[in-house]
Amino acid sequence: MMAKTLQLPIIDLASSDRRSAVHSIRQACLECGFFYIINHGVDEKLLQKVLQGSKLFFSLPIEEKMKLARKEHRGYTTLYAENLDPSSTSTGDSKESFYIGPLEDMTADGQLNQWPSEEVLPSWRFTMEDYYKQVLNAGERLISLIALALNLEESFFYDIGAFNPPNAFLRLLHYPGELGSSDEETFGASAHSDYGMITLLAADGVGGLQVCREKLEEPRIWEDVHYITGAFIINIGDMMERWTNCLFRSTLHRVMPTGQERYSVAFFLDPNPDCVVECLKSCCNESTPPRFSPIRSGEYLNERFKLTYGA
Ligand SMILES: O=C(O)CCC(=O)C(=O)O
Ligand SMILES: [Fe+2]
After folding, report:
1. So what's the pLDDT on residue 178?
2. How many domains does the chain have?
3. What is the pTM of this model?
4. Which residues touch 140 (CB under 8 Å, ≥6 apart)?
5. Which residue range forms the structural domain that includes residue 120?
6. Whose CA is nearest to atom 1 of ligand 1?
7. CATH number of the CATH domain containing 299
């Protein structure tokens, strides 16, 4: 059965009419938790370079990729390593990925991020770091508008230390595109909601992304999300849902295999691990008391990762 295509609002991040942008964001977050942003300031050519770099990386021999196997949540994860839907028994998702964490995170041994060597992929690190900084900037501007959309001060999330510094991860994704031959249903990415605050997603134009707007209703109805050139797809994560007492919706999504190879780049903008996520004053009152107890962002994320990776 063909899925319906979802019409999502397009928010202009550079609009001179900020009030109307803020209003549209609020509407989008209440209704669906997904929308597009344009004029976000991230260079389109740079995004193309990132997608190209991603293709080069995933084409490396597996031995080369395994040298950068995921440690401290940074580096390479193999095909079928993840099962985003812990309730399903499938073999895992048909995708491989590469994670890049905060650029300044250091240990005594040096940077936590792992990088392919300059000889193998020249300027690769520079391209990814440049992109990381540009998307982070777009994300922080968007968060200010989201704060306004929640009737908070524009600087609210800075003031509570969420971005001091933020915990943001760039994730390159590759869906190989072969359709599985077994009877078992395989997904590119199985049904999940993102864990953090917001996600800024860019993709190469190959379809497959779907959302389910009513996560509690059965049967689940999935709708296609179209890719718009130059726009980011934004979605609200579970921590933002928690912060807003479920006023803003963190929506289930998945990637279906289409038989075509697909590359995407997700940027997860999450609060500092020490930042406490607790019901916002503007999101509760006597008749709608807080549904969740306060929790530190780092603690919340650790719990979620344990379920995803089964470790
Ligand atoms: O590749 C995509 O389009 C979506 C990826 C995704 O949902 C995720 O990594 O959380
Ligand atoms: Fe996701």
Report:
1. 75
2. 1
3. 0.94
4. 163, 166, 269
5. 4-309
6. 264
7. 2.60.120.330
